[in-house]
Structures are given as C-alpha cells and as structure tokens.
C-alpha cells in the first residue's frame, strides 16, 4: 500500500502550504515570499530550495542555479547536513537537466554522503535516485539497474507513491531501450495507475509519455498521440516547462514513426525552440536528431544530413548519452547504406571535432 503523493522538497512551513500538484508559478511566488521573510538560516535554506526547484521546473536555469547555491550556503551556516544534502540534490538535478552529467554525479554523490550522515532518509533516497537517473540517462544500465530496483523496494516499504512511480518509470525506460517493449508497457501502465491513485499528476504525465512511446513503437500512433495530449494538459496546468518540451519531442517521435514527416518536423522544431529557451542541451540535441531524420525523409541533401549527424554524434559523446549516440550511428548507416560499424564520419563536416567527455562512473 502507499499514501497520497507528497513533495518533501517543500520543507518547514512550505510543506503545509504547497503540495506535489502545486503549479510552479505558485511555488515560486510563495517560496520567494518565504525567503524574503525568513528569520533563520535554516528557514532561508528551505525557502531557497523551493525557489530553486520551481525555477528549474520552469526552465529558468540561471535563477535555479543561484537559488540552490543560496540554499546550500544557508544550510551550511545553520549547520544542517540534511538541508545541505537537499540543496546539493537540487544542484545535481539541475546539472543533469543542463547536460553536465559528470558534475551532476559529483554533486549527487556528495548529497548522498551528507544525507547519510544526517539521518535524513528522504534526502538520502532522493540523492540516490538522482544518481540512478543520471546513470540511466547516460545509458549505463548495468551500473544502475539494481539501484532502481532497490529504490522501488524502499518506496514500497515506506508507502511513498511518488518514489515508486519514479523508480518504476526508470526501470520501464531501460526495458524499452533494450527492446523488451511488453515489460516496459506493463511497468509504465502500473506507474500511471499508482500515480493516479496517489494523486500525483506530474508522475502520471511522465508515465503517460512512456506508455505513448511504447504504443507508438508497437504501431498505435493515434492512441499514443491521445495520451500525449492528456499529459500535455497536465504539464501546462502545472507549468512543467521541461516536461512539456519532452512531451513535444515525443510527439515528434510518434509522428516520425508513423511516417508523418512534415508534422514530425514541425513538432521537433517546437521542442527545439523550447529546449533552447531553457538552455537544456540534452533536449536540444535530441530534438535536432529528430529534425535531421525528418528532413532527410523529406528529401534534404544527403551530405548536409551526414554533416549534421557527425556534429550530433560528437555532442552526444560529449554529454555522455550512449543510447542517443547509438541512434545517430544507426541512422547514418541507413542514410549511407553502410553497416554501422563501417560508417565513416563525413569529410564535409564543418565543425571542429571535440573530444567526448568520458562519462563518470
């Protein structure tokens, strides 16, 4: 069994005023007022944490960065290791969102250590969850699969629906990316059910996106698009800028798989603009890949396509996204008619090669 979803990142008096389904503009307004009225360093740390999370979800990365650092400094002044851990969790999550995955791992690893020492079980769980998600995004499945399962069991043991939904969705995504679509669909549907019963609108929106992805792969684009429309309504109601952009990118994926290349191109263009506005390089690169594939299907010059794929391959390598990197190689093999292992990097690329960053382990 599990309780109604709650948001432990809203602490102190903010926990009574805000909930998991509060819109992020509302969170920002209330938390900013609490920060200006804070009488102690710990109160400032808690308010600044909420400000950071609201700004991050709204795609305002500079403001989010300033706020989590303020939260950390205030927590350090207060001598509260748990509050310091929450601030570093926020900073690590922001770093992951901005595509700086090695930094995300460093901050989240430190957050785990601080939470462990403080005895804050929720901060410890969230920091571990952040580490697991960072590894999953990088495609380092062997390193994080067991951790996802461990976090799911912890969520079940303590009746924390939001954590169960997160862990189950992550496990589902790994099954989807490794080709076990039936298991992925089962887990995404279960996470959507739990989110619905626990009144976790945000978790439901992400779960619906996962269901739509698998249905699309299985040849059901209209059902997938309907689910994405339902999820989009939640994203707009809660001001989930990043989730909305990923929803639009997934809509592009669904349209592309259905052979609706013009509509896919237009949707990837929307997602690309949204990701650029919030300075989210992972989303930018993924949207650019979708655009490149759509334009190629619509008759774009072959050499131009190969040049862009070469640039994207370097970008994915630099960010550390293995699954996306493999998708670039696979599509280039389609364009050239050459087996992926033999596909050359085109000489017409005009960008200066950059050494890929080695993903942190």
List keywords for this structure.
361 residues, mainly alpha, Serine Threonine Protein Phosphatase 5, Tetratricopeptide repeat, 17 helices, 0% strand, disordered C terminus
Q: Summarize this, please?
A:
This is Tetratricopeptide repeat protein. This protein has about 350 residues and is an all-alpha fold.
Question: Your description of this structure?
Answer:
This protein is mainly α and 361 residues long. It has three domains: 1-138, Serine Threonine Protein Phosphatase 5, Tetratricopeptide repeat (Alpha Horseshoe), CATH 1.25.40; 142-233, Tetratricopeptide repeat domain (Serine Threonine Protein Phosphatase 5, Tetratricopeptide repeat), CATH 1.25.40.10; 240-361, Serine Threonine Protein Phosphatase 5, Tetratricopeptide repeat. Helix content is 77%, strand content 0%. It has helices spanning 13-17, 24-37, 41-57, 61-78, 81-97, 101-118, 121-138, 141-158, 161-177, 181-197, 201-217, 221-238, 241-257, 261-277, 281-297, 302-319, 322-336. The longest helix is centred in the first third of the chain and has 18 residues, at 61-78. Residues 342-361 have low confidence and may be disordered.
Top-tier CATH class of the largest domain = Mainly Alpha
Mean pLDDT across the residues is: 90
Element pattern in H and E: HHHHHHHHHHHHHHHHH
| Model regions low in confidence, pLDDT < 50 over at least 5 residues | 342-361
* Secondary structure tally, helices: 17
Largest sheet at a glance?
none
What is the SS-derived class? mainly alpha
User: What is the count of distinct domains?
Assistant: 3
What is the third-level CATH name, the topology of the largest domain? Answer: Serine Threonine Protein Phosphatase 5, Tetratricopeptide repeat
Calculate the terminal CA-CA distance, rounded to whole Å: 34 Å
Number of strands: 0
């Amino acid at each position: 069994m599990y309780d109604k979803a709650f948001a432990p990142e809203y602490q102190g008096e903010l926990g009574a005023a805000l909930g998991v389904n509060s819109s992020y503009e509302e969170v920002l307004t209330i938390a900013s007022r609490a920060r200006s009225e804070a009488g102690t360093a710990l109160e400032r740390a808690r308010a600044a944490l909420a400000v950071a999370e609201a700004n991050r979800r709204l795609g305002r990365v500079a403001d989010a960065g300033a706020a989590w650092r303020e939260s950390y400094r205030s927590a350090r002044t207060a001598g509260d290791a748990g509050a310091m851990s929450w601030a570093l969790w926020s900073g690590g999550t922001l770093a992951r969102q901005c595509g700086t995955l090695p930094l995300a791992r460093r901050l989240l690893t430190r957050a785990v250590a601080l939470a462990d020492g403080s005895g804050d079980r929720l901060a410890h769980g969230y920091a571990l969850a952040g580490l697991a998600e960072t590894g999953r995004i990088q495609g380092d499945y062997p390193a994080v699969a067991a951790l996802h399962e461990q976090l799911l069991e912890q969520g079940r043991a303590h009746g924390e629906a939001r954590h169960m939904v997160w862990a189950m969705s992550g496990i589902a995504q790994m099954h989807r990316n490794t080709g076990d679509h039936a298991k992925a669909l089962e887990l995404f549907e279960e996470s959507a059910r739990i989110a619905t019963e626990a009144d976790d609108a945000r978790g439901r929106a992400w779960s619906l996106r996962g269901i739509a992805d698998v249905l699309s792969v299985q040849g059901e684009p209209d059902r997938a698009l309907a689910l994405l429309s339902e999820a989009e309504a939640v994203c707009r109601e809660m001001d989930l800028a990043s989730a909305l952009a990923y929803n639009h990118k997934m809509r592009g994926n669904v349209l592309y798989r259905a052979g609706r290349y013009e509509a896919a191109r237009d949707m990837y263009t929307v997602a690309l603009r949204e990701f650029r506005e919030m300075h989210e390089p992972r989303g930018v690169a993924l949207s650019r890949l979708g655009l490149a594939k759509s334009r190629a299907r619509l008759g774009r010059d072959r050499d131009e396509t190969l040049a862009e794929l070469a640039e994207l391959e370097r970008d994915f390598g630099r960010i550390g996204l293995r699954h996306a990197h493999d998708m670039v190689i696979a599509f280039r093999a389609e364009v050239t008619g050459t087996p992926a292992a033999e596909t050359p990097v085109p000489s017409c690329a005009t960008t200066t090669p950059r050494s890929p960053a080695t993903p942190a382990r």
